[in-house]
Amino acid sequence: MTAKLRAALLCLLLSTFTVTAQACDNMPSWAQSACNRLDQIWTEGGHDLYMTGYAWHNRAMYSKEKIDSFNELAWGAGYGRSIYDEDGDWQGLYAMAFLDSHSKVQPIAGYGFLKMGKVSDNFRLGAGYTAFLTARHDIMSYVPFPGILPLVGAGYKNSMLYATYIPGSSGAGNVLFVFGRWQF
């Protein structure tokens, strides 16, 4: 896949989250609340810089040779918008691209939610989920597909460290993915 095609795919994934309040009015009533929240996140949310960095492969699920062949330095970056809602919970929209386990670019765009707990004025912990679209070279040759994963986070002031676990079977999946966010 060429760099231009990867960039176009990332833009397409990000554009799926650019909704407007007028578009929400034309939806069924059951979907209007979610649509309005996405619009609020995108229009009122703070700017977020995402940095990816580590993908740990569960040693109990892979041979040493296979582990040695994997790229676990999942370097990448992204952009998003997020808010802390009326309950103090974090909600965000994001798009990132990073190097996957085979050192190929993997784009992802999605929505994240964390139920937050304040440990102190500046430190907080959260647990929730992320729903997303992604594409991989080894799964349908970069045809986008959806997913939902658990998400945990620990934050200090404007920064947050996240982790999610991609489940799987022996020899597939079973990856702990760690990334960070800085809100500016």
Produce the secondary structure layout:
Elements: H1 3-15, H2 21-25, H3 29-44, E1 46-57, H4 64-69, E2 76-84, E3 90-99, E4 105-118, E5 123-134, E6 145-156, E7 159-166, E8 175-183
Antiparallel strand pairs: 1-2, 1-8, 2-3, 3-4, 4-5, 5-6, 6-7, 7-8
Observed structural traits:
Lipid A acyltransferase PagP; eight-stranded antiparallel β-barrel; 4 helices; 8 strands; cell outer membrane; LipidA_acyl_PagP
Fold and architecture overview:
- By secondary structure, this protein is an alpha+beta fold.
- 22% of the residues lie in helices and 47% in strands.
- It has an eight-stranded antiparallel β-barrel.
- A hairpin with a 2-residue loop joins strand 6 (145-156) and strand 7.
- The longest helix is centred in the first third of the chain and has 16 residues, at 29-44.
- The chain is globular and about 50 Å long.
- The model has no long low-confidence stretch (mean pLDDT 90).
Shape: globular
Helix content class = 10-25%
- Supply the number of helical segments: 4
- Proportion of residues in extended strands: over 45%
Mean pLDDT: 90
What would you report as the Rg, rounded to the nearest angstrom? 17 Å
Low-confidence stretches: none
E-strand count: 8
Oligomeric organization of the protein chains: single chain
Keywords: Acyltransferase, Cell outer membrane, Membrane, Signal, Transferase
Subunit structure: Homodimer.
Protein name: Lipid A acyltransferase PagP
InterPro entries: LipidA_acyl_PagP, OMP/PagP_B-barrel
